[in-house]
Amino acid sequence: MRHGDKIKNLGRTYAHRKALMSNLTCQLIQYKRITTTLAKAKALRVYAEPIITRSKTDNMHNRRIVFSHLQDKEAINELFSVIGDKVASRPGGYTRIIKLAPRLGDAAEMAMIELVDFNTIYGKETQAATKKTRRGRKPAAAKSTEAAPAPSAAATTEAPAAETAAPEAPATEENNA
């Protein structure tokens, strides 16, 4: 029985599992997104997130601890320089697991694991754009009061003057240049 055994063994010995997690983490750091089986992706999230948390503070102690897990200098430099800066304000949850279609060969459940801050599809830019375009409806009483005042004559005469002044400014700059 496996009562109280919380580690995912993935059908591997301790040394093989340690090497697998180290290699998957290095690949995740290098490519920011990898495709693997769902079980490996879930185990990788538990392994990689504390390592990414260490990258928030760039000092020799954290670099040595991360190096003891990964044994890859290029991955550590990438982690502490690029990834550490992006995740500095995030309190956790650096990875996202997205389920994919089963693998054709053996129908294994596949998943894509990626670093959250490096995905442009689900990024903050798209969320900000959706917030800008959302508009609420005004009550009927407010619509009637806003529509009642007619535009003043001064406002209508100022608009054409501003439009004619704008094209002249670039023309004079081109002549001076």
In words, what does this structure look like?
The chain has 177 residues and is mainly alpha-helical. The protein has a domain at 14-122: Alpha-Beta Complex (50s Ribosomal Protein L17, Chain: A). 58% of the residues lie in helices and 9% in strands. It contains 7 helices and 3 strands. It has a 3-stranded antiparallel β-sheet with strand order 1-3-2, covered by helices on one side. The longest helix has 24 residues, at 153-176.
Mean pLDDT equals 83
Strand content: 5-15%
Q: What top-tier CATH class of the domain at 14-122 fits best?
A: Alpha Beta
Taken from the alpha-carbon principal axes, the silhouette is globular
Give the SSE order as H and E letters: HEHHHEEHHH
Stated plainly, the CATH topology of the domain at 14-122 is called 50s Ribosomal Protein L17, Chain: A
Class from secondary-structure proportions: mainly alpha
Q: What is the straight-line distance between the termini?
A: 84 Å
Provide the CATH superfamily of the domain at 14-122.
Answer: Ribosomal protein L17
What Rg is obtained from the alpha carbons, in whole angstroms? 28 Å
Strand arrangement in the largest pleated sheet = 1-3-2
Major beta-sheet overview: 3 strands, antiparallel
CATH architecture of the domain at 14-122: Alpha-Beta Complex
Number of helices: 7
Helix content: 55-70%
Give me the count of strands. Answer: 3
Residue stretches low in confidence (pLDDT < 50, at least 5 long) are none
